[in-house]
Amino acid sequence: VQLQASGGGLVQTGASLTLSCTDSRRTFSNNAVGWFRQAPGKEREFVATISWRGDNTRYTEIVKGRFTISRDRAKNTVHLQMNKLQPEDTAVYYCAARRGSWMSNKSQDYAYWGQGTQVTVSS
Q: Which listed residue, of 37, 43, 72, 112, carries a Cα 20 to 30 Å from 50's Cα?
C-alpha cells in the first residue's frame, strides 16, 4: 500500500473541498481507510473512516453532517467530501489504511499513511 492524498487548498468559510486518497500500488481495496488531521500545535485527530466494502462509515462528532467519506474500490480511491468548512477545519489532512478490514478511529491502528494535504479555511 502506498497512499497519496490530494485535493487540499485555501478556501473561504462555508466553502467545500473534496480530498482524495489514492493507493498507487492498487492494493488497499480490502483495507479500512481513515482520514485524520493535524492542526498547528495540536495532536493528530481522527476525522472519518470507511470499511473495506464502503458500506460502513464513522465520523468524529464535529464533522458529522458536513463531511462524507466514500470509496471507489475499482479506482482504489477514497474521497472525503467536506462541506460548510470552518476555520477550525484548517489542518493537514492525512489518509491512512489499516492492514485489515476493520474500521478504527485510533491512529495507532493504521499501518500506512499518505503524505498529507493542507486545508486552510479563511474567515
A: 43
